[in-house]
Amino acid sequence: MRNARRRLRLGVMLMGIVLASLLVVDTARAQEAIPRLPRAELAFEDARASFEGGNFAEAAEGFRSVMEFPLNRKTTAAFVMAAKARYRQGDYRAAIELTNTLLERYPETSYRQEAIDVQTKAEEGLRTFGRRADTLRVGVVLPMRDRDADLTQAFFNGVRLAVDEHNGIRRRYVLPPHLQSTRSEDVSVFNTAEMYGDSLASASGETTIATPRDTIQVDSLQIVTEQVGQPSYIAKMYFRSVGEQPPSAGTAVDSLIRLDRVDIIIGPLYSQFAREAGRVAEENRVVMVAPLATDESVSQGRQFVFQANPTIPMRGRAMARFAAESLLMESVGIIHEASDETARQIASGFREEARQIALKTPYTLSLSSRRDWSRLPGAFAADSTVTDSMRASAEAVYMPITGRDAQGKIQDAMVGLQRFGSDARILGNSQWHDLSVKQEASKVRATYANDFYVDTSRNNVQNFIRDYRLLTGDTPDNLSVTGQRLAYTGHDVTRFLLQFLQAGRTRPSPDALRSPPRYNGLGIRIDFQTGDNVNRALFFHRYRDGQIELLN
After folding, report:
1. Could you give the count of Cα atoms lying within 13 Å of 343 in the half-sphere of its Cβ?
2. pTM here?
3. CB–CB of 350/378 below 8 Å?
């Protein structure tokens, strides 16, 4: 009897093993039957990078694009990740709808439990917060002088696109009647610039809202603006203009706070105006982000004022840290032009950071004239404080170069250094970007920090270019170099704020901007985690084989 029971148990175990093996085989066959779509997988990785960077709205759109492909290996994962992104945005209903669709459409998915977990959290969030109807009032203060008008408009267009994106507003073409399907177009149309159209000329003191009116035309095709999403809160813009003198910036900020009761402020553009605006914002304890100012005094000693553009010394500090932590260097020499005040501040920031992180700077050579760049052997010989052993001990040479004819100076600097027969690597600043002599820069392994960089191959950048054209009738590429930068910066700063701040009964705390991980925008990166209210997130590039590579 005992032997019979043992045989029975053994038979049951063998049958279980066989069934499990068949299940594994069936699962593997099912997985093999689902095709791999390289384009879908690439879009998924882009969306995941956005999610990990804290850009949840961008991530949700990216995962949605993966879901629109035919069934592929990333389809179900995209559903779950899109739900997570919507949950992180506070759009709990959207998260629940996504998980419901996934579980109904693919009930056997391996992501079933993960989807249920997300759904449970979203339902709890919906019970706690409901569909929040709060409004975050965004103050925008910009110059309206004739010489600034085009740049101001470009920046404001970027801000407006970011606000529209957050509010679930989208623009699209409407096909001419003879190209439409038999079913007529049925859309809700919104005017997102009531009172003053697409111009800021008469916008000061007005709001930017949405009412059912607006259509425009681009290339003879009608553009409609429609509501396609339900945000967790509404963002509303309030604009005030700045006059000719810096005190007018303080007056504009005071009006935004007292009359418009804004929650946060974006602007002004330039340091001398941002200092005065920041003083008023600090006194009233309202968060203000200066998008372009580089002078340290704008945010120094202030809790509520932030600088999205790294200050001049911060650029040098960031390069020093990257050299030590990422390039694993122990010793870097410094060469800069004495009459170049900006380069002097960058070099000073590099030395200060180097001291803090124990990176050696064996020498600093200050050149007396622009011509000395091509005559570095003579410049070294004339400076008795720099010995041959000091120069030889440096693994790299940091050469911050700015000002007029920066590229010409850079070419001379590479020639001057090569006359030593030196194999030291060259480190540089943003002026080293996109040189015409890429092969020569590759020979010296030139590596540099850059505060602005747009990769037009990214899907979200292409979407921005399309949206900008639908809004203005033109693309950012046709703006001036500064105009392009301002358009992308306006978008990125605003998206960062709307991503990490929440509407509520009280104004946002500045601590809410110090805790998020590095934000990867379309053209800039933002990171205030160090607590000094100055962005220190930069791009680092190098030249290799005549090409530019992004290192981080």
Report:
1. 26
2. 0.72
3. no
